[in-house]
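Hi everyone, sorry if this is the wrong subforum. Our group has a chain we'd like a structural model of before ordering constructs, and none of us has done structure prediction before. Sequence below.
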Amino acid sequence: MNTFDQLVLLATGLTAIYLIVRLFQDNKRLGSPAVHNTYYLASFIVLLVSGLLLIWKGWDILPNPEVIVVTTLLPLGIATGLVHEFHKDKAKGYLIFAIVGFLAILVTRFAGAPRGLQIFTLAFFHSIAGFTIVLIPYFATKAGKVPGGFIGVSIGGVLIGIGGTSLAFLKSGNPILSAELIMTILAPLLLLMTLAYTFGFVKKIVAAKKG
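Answer:
Right subforum, don't worry. Here is the predicted structure as tokens:
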């Protein structure tokens, strides 16, 4: 990992810290921790820790099963939070889906499952979570439930999908982009993703505070 990537990941971490602080402030405004904010906080704390580990250890830690399993919490956590916030009637079912997905990825990574099954399991649950992250903010914005800036969360979902899909195909041995290109764009992609999420969530927090 070069110095540019480290600086970009540092900026990603600082952005994640800012969003974490704003989510804590939103909980304070509400008077008690909101369940959806708890999911969001857990997700962005995972992002922060992952970014710091990448700065410290470099890209070589990406194939580690522990890293793959932990980073799965990011899309699953955000998606579960969105469902709980905007579709409470489906929250319990989606939480079960997220737990099953996390356990399936955990088991396939550590139980010696065939590589193809590992990649399929990861791609399946990541893609469902990704679609959830893209669609819920889009329709919530379209319905006027949240300010237009909340669409930034959908953009973040698209970016995390691009990064996750590229890495999954790279690990499968059938990369859709060259390994060199993926490693070149990964740090900036993580920063753009975090900026998009931060923009979207902060716009919603500010609007709720004014309202």
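For your construct planning: The longest helix spans residues 179-210. The two ends are 45 Å apart (CA to CA).
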